[in-house]
Amino acid sequence: MSIAITDPIDRIVAGNAIYARQTSETDPNAFAELERGQSPEILWIGCADSRVPETTVCNCAPGELFVHRNIANTVHGNDISAASVVEYAVAHLKVRKIVVCGHTRCGGANAALTDLDLGTTLNTWLHPVRELRRKHRAELERLPNDDARAVRVAELNVHQSIDVLKQHPAVMKAVSEHSLSLHGMIYDIGAGKLWLLKESRGKKDYGLWTPK
């Protein structure tokens, strides 16, 4: 009879033991290969939301994605944490693609719909997203409800983050010299699906998905 594990730390340690055993049984060389180094082709910039684990939703294995996550997958021009991840991924790992992925039911995007006080740090962090809401107020007010508005803010935020990334010196150089490309996505939590956001003739075209 198995004993239920209730402590969250015990849960992840036990889970790791299962992962290590099953991985070794499936591929005895898996960890030796990972130990030799990494050569991911994609830098994934996503939200810290626990429901959007990138390797799981993309069905990827360890070593396939280089990852940076934060609240609302927001890239700030003065964020040295994100900038250092980008520089390492682009200049040293030579990734071929950068993906910025937002998602539905995003707490950060939803919080950006108002100016409620979330505390000094979160207020500062979400300020650029709230500015997007103000800038696109007329468009957002035409949408049927806050769920739809939050998704639209998430989409706009993805594009804004990509615009910031395009100004990063390492990205500019890699786009010119190595054909690095940048891509925006939205993950639909309710459907478990990724939606690629496209640009049309230089304009933002996010009409690929309509919230229910």
Automatic annotation (TrEMBL):
Binding-site positions, Zn(2+): C47, D49, H103, C106
Record-level GO cellular component terms: cytoplasm
Gene Ontology terms for molecular function: carbonate dehydratase activity; zinc ion binding
Alphabetized InterPro entries for the sequence: Carbonic_anhydrase, Carbonic_anhydrase_CS, Carbonic_anhydrase_sf
Known cofactor(s): Zn(2+)
This protein's record includes keyword Magnesium: no
Keywords associated with the record: Lyase, Metal-binding, Zinc
SMART domains, per database record: Pro_CA (SM00947)
Family to which this protein belongs: Belongs to the beta-class carbonic anhydrase family.
PANTHER family, alphabetized: CARBONIC ANHYDRASE
Function description: Reversible hydration of carbon dioxide.
The protein's name in its UniProt record: Carbonic anhydrase
